[in-house]
Amino acid sequence: MSILNDLPVEGVIPEDDEEEQEEEEDNNPFAGTAHMFASGVASVPDHIATGSAVRGTVLSAGAPQYLYDEDEVGDEVAAAGSADPTADLKRYDGDTPDVSSSDSSRGSTHQGSSTISPHSKYEPYETLTMSMAVPPVDNQPLDSLDGTERISIVDSGDFKDPWGKHAIGYVIRTAQGGEVIRRYSEFASLHQVLMKLLPTIVIPPIPSKHPLLKYFLNPINAQNDAKIIEKRKRRFVSFLNECNRVAEIRSHIVFQKFLDPEYNWKDVLNSPPVTVLPLSNLLAPPLNPTKPSPLHILLPSPRTLTKVKPLVDRRDSDTEKEFALYEEKLARYMARFHPLHASVKQTNNHVHTLSSQIAELGAYYNAFSLENRDQAAGRVCESIEKIGHSFDVTYVSLEMLAESVHNLVEEPLDDIVKYLQDSKRVIVFKDLKYAQRQIIKATIKKRTARFDELAEFGKKLKKLDSAVIRDVAASSYVEPAESTSPESPTSPTNLSSSVVSHTEQVVQFQLQRNKRRLGKNAVNKRGQVEPEFLTTMEREEETKRLARELSKLRECERLIDRDIEQVNASALNSLKSLVEHIDSTAELLLKSITRAIIDWIKECLKAWQTARASIGDL
Amino acid sequence: MGVSTVDGMASGIEGSSDAGHLGTLDITVSDPQKRTGDQGSYVSYQISTKTQGARIVVVHRRFSDLQLLHDYLAEEHPTCVVPPLPEKKVLVSITSDRFSQRFTAKRCHSLQNFLRRVAAHEALSRSDLLRSFLMRDEEWDRAKRSLVSRQAAGGGGARREEVTDAFMNAFKSVHAQSDECVEVRERNDRLDRTVGRLDRTFHKVVKRNDVLVDDLARLGTHVAELRELEGTHTSGKQWQTFNEALTRLSYGVSDLNKYLDYELLVDLRDLEHYIDSLRQQLKLKDQKQIDYEQLSEYLTKAVRERDQLIAGYGGHNFFTNKLEEFAGVNQEAARREKITKLEGKISSLGGALESAKQVADAFELETLREVAQFERVRTQELKRSLGELADHHIEFYEQMLETWTAVDAELGG
């Protein structure tokens, strides 16, 4: 696979195969997918609108493994239910069984699920259905939610959770007026879960965890960490409101449960849809990963993006061009905002130290005026005091400025950077989807080639045979040996078949000798046995298998095309609103910080002018 | 209210200066320039003096000229606190550039402080040499030559004596001190501490400001890069304006910092030196006091011995007396002789004591006058320094207000 990015797609395919073979020998990641494919989800009913129903054939396509699988096992429905796949399923953390068993539990929606009855030992989830509905995404920003209906955090403090553990709780008041207490770790897990549940949506960021060292030095408690709590409170408010702004998040059941005091968050985390999340979102419907879709499991799962990136970059359609535009824009944003954030942070730290030194100056000047009240300096003392006062004012206003820089610039910038980082996740997901399609297409191409090759060879053989028959027919002699066959050669076809079988036998004899003699030479560089070294039986079986695989692969291709369409639409929409959000944040940021700076200047100017007046003209 | 009283004081000071030889002096030292002479390069400072008639006289002097002036004044006015000059800073010339802008600018300001102090000093300002230094090149050249030769002939002798003297008396302390002197000393020490602390803190502030200037400049470049991301909400021009404002803020802080570094810190440092000079003066006064006290101690001893002799055989024990008797010494005669000797000693001591007392008293008086001078000059300096501090801050904030209001307008519109 690794050489894919160096060569044009068409030319790559054969090498690609070779590579796969090597990998296969090494027990590489593809082995995993092969297991997945062998895991035998017998009936693969379609989930949304795949008009063509998938019949009860086991798909072993898509995975390179079975390509070289000369034993041809596990193709049949019966084989799928065997003990071996079950063991495999167990290995997959129960994600796969979740899906398949939920299939069986929801038998009403699709037929043929009975074949997976061996898996029904997994309990069906009754609650599953409630999370499944994909909400209609309205792309309109919710202006109505902006002004009045906002989520706020009204209080924070030490609270005891139902398990008796102490933690800092944040009292959230929803737009509807309900109040619910959540703690930091719950916010963090919500964030995590949302990222998994909505792979195509950029999730608003939450404040980072404490550095571990700080935590050890100063274990969090309500008293001494008031500042951090205050900060988190502020950022949680913005997190919740920004989540609320995104239709996909707002209408998501998990988010709604988070804001619902009726639900214990731990229970939410330990129940579907969270528990039925697939291991990899690539092997699930992109817009709703918890929705069961057995066909998705059959998709290949590319591990790294670097290998497939060049394939992805072949963009023709408008959507893809637009995507490229946004991706480039976001990358540029990242390149700008990241250093800016660091720079602002550093500057602000320096402003902090400066302000503390100015506070010192103010104190010294004030002490100066008090300590040195001698006759000569008596009148100057007043001025000194005023200067001290000016420094005090400078200190206070500088602190305020630093605070506003922190709140109005540093934090939003931090959010922007985190947003941008998260946007990468969405883009990577989308690219991986493209990679999936590439892999499927390549596999189809490969299979078709092999199929054609075999067919061609069959045709050639037939031609040869018919030529032989013609020869036999032309010579009016009929060999007595031929007529001794069980079916009396009364018709030309029978005759020809016997001739064919004879030829066949000769060929086979030779073949077996050749095989022994040639050894590896019989295998071409794709790891396939050259058709001429196959017996008719083998050839026919492989042809049959290829036909099945191809039909499955085409199925997958349709699926992935639809997936990509959905992913594109959803992700593009999310990225668009992200860019919009960043732009508006940047504007707000500029405006508010300018105001803060002006306030600071005005405050200081006033103080110094007062001081100047008391000193008088020189 | 504060304004009027301060003004009143200021005019009073000027009035007293008016009575002086030179009248009101407004001395500015500026424009340090590197010159190359016969004995290598030196820095020449432009000294412009504004006299009463609004006449401005400009002369050029180098650091060694000021040193000559300082030494001359110190010699001619031993009882005066001659304002100190900045250190010669030999090390600076080795470690860093002696002609760097930072160094010369700071020294320039320091020299200005020196000249202003001398001019503000009642006695020192009457010096003819000061006049020629400030105003007349030929006279100064002549005086300079004679001063140099005189210094070459015998210099330093008196100084060494002083040093040993001070060393001898280092472990002796003054017994009786006037309350006034005690107070002056305390006040001086207190001021010294405060100024020292301010000096250190300003030093830190200056360093921090430097860092901040760099930060702001870097921030500016980052913001300038954001200009490329012209979005729907912000225009490139707005980012540009913001960037320019940041750059200007950076320059503003830099300018303010230059003032703090080149002028305010120099003022503080000079004030510390001046305080130190005053302290030396107080120490000198103490020495005179100690001289007097020792003399008087000696005298009391002699008087006591004489009184004992007159009263009888006190002072000698029985054994000695017997021994002398045995040797055939006329005890009565010897006693008389001793008494006469002591009498002579007492009378001479009395005379010395009298003169020492006079010297000490006179010196104390002189010192107190110097203290008053010092405090007047210091107050004046403080006032000026504070005023400049406020002015520079106001200037900075006014500029920034203008800049950022423009940014606000740009963003709002």
Give a verbal description of the structure.
The complex is a heterodimer of chains A (618) and B (413). Chain A has helices at 9-25, 29-38, 64-67, 77-80, 83-91, 95-105, 143-146, 184-197, 212-217, 226-245, 247-250, 253-258, 265-269, 294-297, 309-312, 318-371, 378-474, 480-483, 492-518, 536-615; strands spanning 152-160, 166-173, 179-183. By secondary structure, chain A is mainly alpha-helical. Among the domains of chain A are: 148-277, PX Domain (2-Layer Sandwich), CATH 3.30.1520; 282-470 and 532-617, Arfaptin homology (AH) domain/BAR domain (Substrate Binding Domain Of Dnak, Chain:A, Domain 2), CATH 1.20.1270. Chain A is elongated and about 140 Å long. In chain B, 75% of the residues lie in helices and 7% in strands. In chain B, a hairpin with a 5-residue loop joins strand 2 (40-50) and strand 3. In chain B, helix 5 crosses helix 6, helix 8 (179-226) runs antiparallel to helix 9 (236-311) and helix 9 (236-311) runs antiparallel to helix 11. The longest helix of chain B is centred in the C-terminal third of the chain and has 82 residues, at 331-412. Chain B is elongated. Mean pLDDT of chain B is 77; it is low at 1-21 and 155-164. The interface between A and B is large, with 64 and 65 residues.
List keywords for this structure.
heterodimer, A: 618 residues, mainly alpha, Substrate Binding Domain Of Dnak, Chain:A, Domain 2, 20 helices, 62% helix, elongated, B: 413 residues, PX Domain, disordered N terminus, PX_Snx41/Atg20 (chain A), PX domain-containing protein (chain A)
Q: Give the CA-based shape of chain A.
A: elongated
Can you name the CATH architecture of one domain in chain A? Up-down Bundle
String of helices and strands of chain B: HEEEHHHHHHHHHH
> Whole-number radius of gyration of chain B?
32 Å
By CATH, the superfamily of one domain in chain A comes out as Arfaptin homology (AH) domain/BAR domain
- State the end-to-end distance of chain A: 82 Å
CATH secondary-structure class of the largest domain in chain B: Mainly Alpha
Largest interface: A-B, 64 and 65 residues
* CATH superfamily placement of the largest domain in chain B: Arfaptin homology (AH) domain/BAR domain
Distance separating the two termini of chain B: 44 Å
Number of helices of chain A: 20
Q: Per CATH, what is the topology of one domain in chain A?
A: Substrate Binding Domain Of Dnak, Chain:A, Domain 2
Total helical elements of chain B = 11
Largest sheet of chain B: 3 strands, antiparallel
- Supply the helix-strand structural class of chain B: mainly alpha
GO cellular component, one term (chain A): cytoplasmic side of endosome membrane
Protein name (chain A): PX domain-containing protein
GO molecular function, one term (chain A): phosphatidylinositol-3-phosphate binding
GO biological process, one term (chain A): retrograde transport, endosome to Golgi
